[in-house]
Sequence to fold (182 residues):
Amino acid sequence: MTRPLRRDAQRNRELLIAAAREVFGEKGLDAPLEEIARRAGVAIGTLYNRFPTRMDLVAAAFGGMLDHWASEAEQALGADDPWDGLVELIVRTCELQTVDRGMTELCTSALPDAPGLRAARERVGEVFEKVLARAHDAGVLRPDFGLDDLAFAIAATTQAAPLGDWRRHLTFLLDGLRPQDT
Fold:
């Protein structure tokens, strides 16, 4: 049985997770751990004591966020119109990824397994697959457009954010996803 953390140790853990979310969000998952410790106001040894590996810290910082994202994504399955559900999911995903570099890298990179991350990432992927299948079944999405295409399209759209309004680029993308009349 694991003993509960002392109050100060728990506070340090929470400070480290909050600092990791900020720093990873700003600089990506390769951000210096020293900067995370400094921003949390703790020594680097405290960071390593709480999170022995970078992936342990990434999992603590993003695991809950991935679960929340998957829950939000499931709302797209309840949309009356499958196209509207798909569009809402894509827009929410782009909104998230344009402001959080760490989340973008987490979603688009092949990362080593970390406690809790694989299951959360798989859940997100399953929800996206269901939303795509629903749109395909309704005939409102090109039949040749799949999950890999969606991941690439979202990454390309959100990477364009520094170049201008990502929503404008997304509009072009969405127009191209509708089935073409033959």
Observations:
- The chain has a mean pLDDT of 87.
